[in-house]
Amino acid sequence: MIITSTTPTKITPEIKAFCMEIDSTQTPIYIPVRPVPKAKMNECFGSVLNHISLHGGRIQYGWIIWEELQKRFLEAEFHAVWVSPSGEFVDIMPKIDKENTILFMPDSKRIYKGQLIENRRKLLVISDLILEWLWFGHNCHSIKEKHFENGKLNEIAANAELVQWMNFVKKNGVPIFSRSGSCPCGSGKKLKLCHGR
Ligand SMILES: [Zn+2]
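Predict the joint structure of the above. Result:
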């Protein structure tokens, strides 16, 4: 399954609604990506704090909003950006796909305390493929969570279990999702009362 997400080209009503669910007191903003040489991939929180110790400013926690290319779902990834002493928001983390702008939704409450925070996902289209994607995303997170201790992921152990789990899925297939069955996001609610609404 190849699924690609990108920075949304505009803030649609669906994106606005998704952002309101995350934090009704904030609004999403486009922010430039200007990677700093010392920023370590996947370590935005430490990298921003390190950048502050050199250049001042402050940290802002929030979510990067991603839109799937075919607009079948939205995804929010917990993240931190740097706010310069003059108040400009900058994402100092390199992006795998060289994206130079992100859509960022500040979070007024949540801060990073060494925990693993699951992405938030909103389905815009309900199909077997997209439900499978939701299920896959949640299961990968659960496996990582098992191997996450003291703010660090044991990547070797997590990858080993991921491979084992994927082999199991290849052999046994993906569960069938029905509207009155449990939601593949793992909330324990029925699909029709959760992501299938
Ligand atoms: Zn759900």
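Helices lie at 13-22, 44-55, 128-146, 155-172.
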